[in-house]
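Reviewers of the previous submission asked for a worked example of the structure-prediction workflow described in the proposal, so we include one complete record here. The input consisted solely of the amino acid sequence. No template or homolog information was supplied to the procedure at any stage.
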Amino acid sequence: MTSTERQMPKQARGRAAVASILAAASELLEEAGFDSLTTATIATRAGVNIATLYRYYPNKFAIVRELAQSIEEERSGVALEALAELGVASDWREPVRRAVRAMAQLRRDRSGATAIRRALQSSPELWHLDHDVNAATATAIAPFLLRVNPALAEERAQAIALTVVHTVASLLDLAAGERERALGLERELELVVINYLAPELDRA
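From that input alone, the workflow returned the following structure tokens.
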């Protein structure tokens, strides 16, 4: 269930309740993780009764899915904004660096982002959301790669884009769990992506 599929609140009070539910779920995920999350604890933290919560969400998976969808779409958005300069900027490396750094910064700035990523990975019910967003992001990135190197086959560009998207997501997950080494890992990630892309994009 996504925000477009669930019952949409028509009044300000209902919209406030939904915002409180989402904020409470994000806080609880950060504090105790997905396995400890329940609709009862979310309702209590949000200051709404359980019937109000169930009016908008049938279970905790629907709540976490909406949180995750928002973060995943934002992640895709910041990447595409930076990569839009591929083929326009004099050096393709700089847009790639900006994209990686923007996604890393989003992880740091967005409350609950790390906990929500962990929930996506630990729940079969939520795993496909991450996969679908990665696939959609790769499909959007592939044309930028072709802009830099038109000689690339479309299927190859799609495979490269999907590899990059999954690599970035996985290594940022690792960096989130290694706080003291996070910045160093993010710089290593930039090198991994740039060195992977170089044989194809420098050929143009």
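Residues 124-148 form the longest helix (25 residues). We consider this example representative of the routine output the project will generate in years two and three.
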